[in-house]
Amino acid sequence: MTETPQRNRAESPDKEATPLIKRGGGDPATRGRTTIADGVVEKIAGMAARDVVGVHAMGSGLSRTFGAVRDRVPGGGKSVTRGVKAEVGESQTALDLEIVVDYGVSIIDVARDVRENVIAAVERMTGLEVVEVNIAVSDVKLPDEPDEEDQSEPRLH
């Protein structure tokens, strides 16, 4: 009897032995590069900031006024990035947010909650490290003030 030397091949009873082929190299997650646009991070941050109780609106008075006009134009839609600016690097991001808070809430508590919510959402969804979230409170919404974003009639006729 003759012994066959062991080979590094997968053998099938009906087919000829075929060599094992290893394709690619290493973990598939490391093969290539993912880039995330500033606008993507701005949308995530804008949605996360608006979810916080006490945040009435995003952006300065001027940007909210222009946004309210744009929202009325067919196809304009609400801009979730209003009041949000992101700078995205390869592995980190920094954010600037401008918010309007409801009268009576603790601005310090709202800012802390916004910061925590934005950081958690951006890091979870993008994998980027959020190095800073700067928050500017540009206004306080008083209970008796008309809401610029909810006005159904334009001011000019």
Number of helices: 3
Please report which band the strand proportion falls in: under 5%, 5-15%, 15-25%, 25-35%, 35-45% or over 45%. 15-25%
* Helix share, percent: 25-40%
So what's the overall shape?
Answer: rod-shaped
Beta strands, count: 6
How many strands, which pairing sense, and closed or not: the largest β-sheet? Answer: 4 strands, mixed
Rg on CA atoms, Å: 27 Å
- Oligomer state of the chains in this structure: single chain
End-to-end separation: 103 Å
Which structural class do you get from the secondary structure elements? Answer: alpha+beta
What would your notes on this structure say?
With 157 residues, this protein is an alpha+beta fold. 29% of the residues lie in helices and 24% in strands. It contains three helices and six strands, in the order ββαβαββαβ. The chain has helices spanning 38-50, 61-72, 107-126, and strands at residues 9-10, 18-19, 55-58, 84-88, 92-102, 129-141. Strands 3, 4, 5 and 6 form a four-stranded mixed beta sheet that branches. The chain has a two-stranded antiparallel sheet with strand order 1-2. The longest helix has 20 residues, at 107-126. The chain is rod-shaped. The model is unreliable at 150-155 (pLDDT under 50).
Please sum up the structure shown.
This protein is an alpha+beta fold and 157 residues long. The chain has helices spanning 38-50, 61-72, 107-126, and strands at residues 9-10, 18-19, 55-58, 84-88, 92-102, 129-141. β5, α3 and β6 form a beta-alpha-beta unit.
